């Protein structure tokens, strides 16, 4: 009787495992490079400061604004990944080459995980204009 139970449990486990595998398919790895154009302080502002007494343009040079925290969605509006998103969340020391986790995604990047590296290639403190390069290595189904 006991061995029958074990056999039944094994069959159930194998069934669930096989079913899950068939539904999700196999993990694929993808490498992407994207460039962020961050402007702040003029009519073309793309980044704003959230903490503080009022919402105002972000000044990368001023002290006190930095939470050193990255929380971003990469939204694809065209091409092969149109309608899909990649979610990036983690700590950003804001100097040198930084690494931040990729924690999820939607569309073609469902159940994504991986990491993204960031490097500031250009920075103009007067206009608060930064060009940031990011390489992402992502596993997804
Ligand atoms: C803002 O963007 C517009 C359209 O690209 C451009 O013509 C204008 O010069 C930009 N303004 C500044 C201050 O860079
Ligand atoms: C940002 O702050 C620095 C230092 O206070 C200042 O020199 C610079 O003009 C400011 N930039 C903008 C766009 O306000
Ligand atoms: C991105 O990859 C390129 C090519 O390997 C490399 O030259 C560059 O330094 C990388 N940048 C970051 C931010 O990882």
From TrEMBL:
**What Gene Ontology cellular-component terms does the record carry?**
apoplast
Locate the coiled-coil region(s) and give their ranges: none
Organism domain of life: Eukaryota
Q: Which UniProt keywords apply?
A: Apoplast, Secreted, Signal
Gene3D superfamilies linked to this entry: Allene oxide cyclase-like
Primary localization: secreted
Localization terms from the record:
Secreted, Extracellular space, Apoplast
Tell me how this protein assembles: Homodimer.
Q: What is this protein called?
A: Dirigent protein
What organism is listed for this UniProt entry? Salvia divinorum
């Amino acid at each position: 009787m006991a061995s029958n139970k074990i056999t039944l449990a094994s069959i159930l486990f194998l069934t669930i495992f096989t079913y899950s595998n068939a539904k999700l398919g196999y993990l694929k790895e993808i490498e992407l490079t994207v460039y962020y154009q961050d402007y702040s302080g003029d009519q073309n502002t793309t980044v704003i400061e959230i903490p503080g007494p009022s919402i105002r343009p972000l000044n990368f040079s001023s002290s006190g604004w930095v939470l050193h925290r990255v929380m971003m969605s990469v939204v694809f509006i065209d091409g092969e990944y149109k309608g899909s998103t990649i979610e990036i969340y983690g700590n950003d020391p804001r100097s040198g080459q930084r690494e931040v986790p990729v924690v999820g995604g939607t569309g073609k990047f469902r159940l994504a995980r991986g990491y993204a590296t960031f490097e500031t290639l250009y920075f103009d403190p007067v206009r608060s204009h930064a060009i940031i390069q990011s390489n992402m290595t992502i596993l997804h189904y």
